Amino acid sequence: MSSTANGKNGTWRNWGGNVSARPAREVAPASVDELAAAVRRAAEDGLRVKAVGSGHSFTSIAATDGVLIRPQLLTGIRSIDRDAMTVTVEAGTPLKRLNVALAREGLSLTNMGDIMEQTVSGATSTGTHGTGRDSGSIAAQIKGLELVTADGSVLTCSEKENPEVFAAARIGLGALGVVTAITFAVEPVFLLTAREEPMPFDRVLADFEELWTENEHFEFYWFPHTGNTNTKRNNRSAGPEKPVPQLQSWFEDEFLSNGVFQVANWVGRAVPATIPAIAQISSKALSARTYTDTPYKVFTSPRRVRFVEMEYAVPRAAVVETLRELRTMVDRSGLRVSFPVEVRTAPADDITLSTASGRDSAYIAVHMFQGTPYQRYFTAAERIFTAHEGRPHWGKVHTRDAEYFSRVYPRFAEFTALRDRLDPDRLFQNDYLRRVLGA
User: Fold this and answer.
1) Using CA atoms, how far apart are residues 251 and 102, in angstroms rounded to an integer?
2) Cα–chain-centroid distance for residue 201?
3) Rounded to whole angstroms, how far apart are CA atoms 301 and 219?
4) pLDDT tens for residues 183-242?
5) How far apart are CA 55 and CA 122, in angstroms?
6) Which of 244, 280, 347, 395 could staple 249 via S-S, CB 3.0–4.6 A?
7) Confidence of residue 1 (pLDDT cuts 50, 70, 90)
8) Any residues with CB less than 8 A from the CB of 271 and at least 6 apart, and which?
9) Neighbours of 420 (CB within 10 A)
């Protein structure tokens, strides 16, 4: 699932297959000192620098024609502080390895996204999140950061040390420096009970506030061309542990959600007219189930069917109206959409460019099967999202620019001023940052 290490002639590609780059050179530093030296050398050679994780962003946020830094040697847990209940981890550590290592130590993150292939620094730098009534994105759980800045110096920040950098760098887009280590808040491992069940779309919209209020983690998937959704409610449980039986888990998570779904998407891509019928079947394929397990086994699931995705955060109060408009648009457009729309929430946080910065948010994600034209659908969806002052996920497809962001992020100028201070020569610049942050 990782990005192509060295594709043809040193070409780097992302997971979604929609972004590629040809860096002048690649570096895999084995220590923070080596990384700092690589940054200084790039500056001397007049080359820009980008660190790349597992390539899970659909935007060109990690693309560079300069020096591509691969953090795969900067992995593992540096230290665990059981008094402060924090863990400090190297930036290149994949989330799945962090989750397993924490569980072995009897610890867990409070909340996480639904994919765990990404590196901790890639996931946090782009604002990766799950769903939560009271708990926010992965970045919102950061207690401290270490980053190498443009002059090759190593800067540590937290609420007490360099607080203005801490406010911004937790979701830094790779614009402020290369993150080398992250300190996360953790808690004793707990159990979650997941309740997954189909529910009519109209009922979910009518009861959205109630479903959100009554559950620690509520999310649902709506299948376009149908009135059907699959809802998922995760709440803490006293136990006992009751995982999904292995055969059932394989059948539902691998066979139906990945295998059959893959074939259905191939058919839909070849013959778009079949998509509404397939959607009806897909939306009814998964039956209700309840299981209790360790958090990372409940929050995350395998994603083997490749897709391209756009996701926007809208104010939570606007989510039902936004979804109604999205359904009307799909019904009238003649579009054929084979992938479900995913809806999640997050509480307001205090991170400068977090999609939930200063406002309770709901996330609406639209997907298209890899290789299917997505522009028309995404453009129409984006028009609806931006009318509600939506903020796009930094790692997913969108067409917004700095002018737009300065309107929807009250603290946008605070971030760009910090960037001017930390990276005046734009060592970490690329086309994507030029567009979203301005020159």
Assistant:
1) 28
2) 25
3) 14
4) 999 999 999 999 999 999 999 999 999 999 999 999 999 999 999 999 999 999 998 999
5) 8
6) 244
7) very low
8) none
9) 10
**Spatial distance between the Cα atoms of 397 and 366, rounded to a whole number of angstroms:** 10
The residues, any chain, with a CB within 8 Å of residue 45's CB and separated by 6 or more, are none
Structure tokens at 401: 């620019």
How is residue 72 written in tokens? 């795969």
Q: How many CB atoms lie within 10 A of CB 304?
A: 12
Residue 252: left if φ>0, alpha if ψ -120 to 50, beta else—which one? alpha
The answer to whether residue 267 scores a pLDDT higher than 80 is no
Residue 150 in tokens? 């443009």
Which of 112-121, 254-263, 412-421 reaches the highest mean pLDDT?
412-421
Asked whether 224 and 330 are in contact (CB, 8 A), the reply is yes
Structure tokens at 362: 């709901």
Q: Which residues touch 427 (CB under 8 Å, ≥6 apart)? A: 39, 42, 43, 48, 49, 150
The secondary structure of the chain in percent helix, strand, coil, rounded to multiples of 5, reads 35, 25, 40
Is 67 within 8 Å of 24 (Cβ atoms)? yes
Helices first, then strands: H and E counts in the chain: 15, 20
> What is the β-pairing status of strands 217-222 and 228-237?
antiparallel
Q: Could you tell me if 355 and 340 are in contact, meaning their C-beta atoms sit under 8 angstroms apart?
A: no
Look at the block and give the residue holding tokens 């039902």.
320
What is this structure's pTM? Answer: 0.93
**Identity (one letter) of the amino acid at 248?**
Q
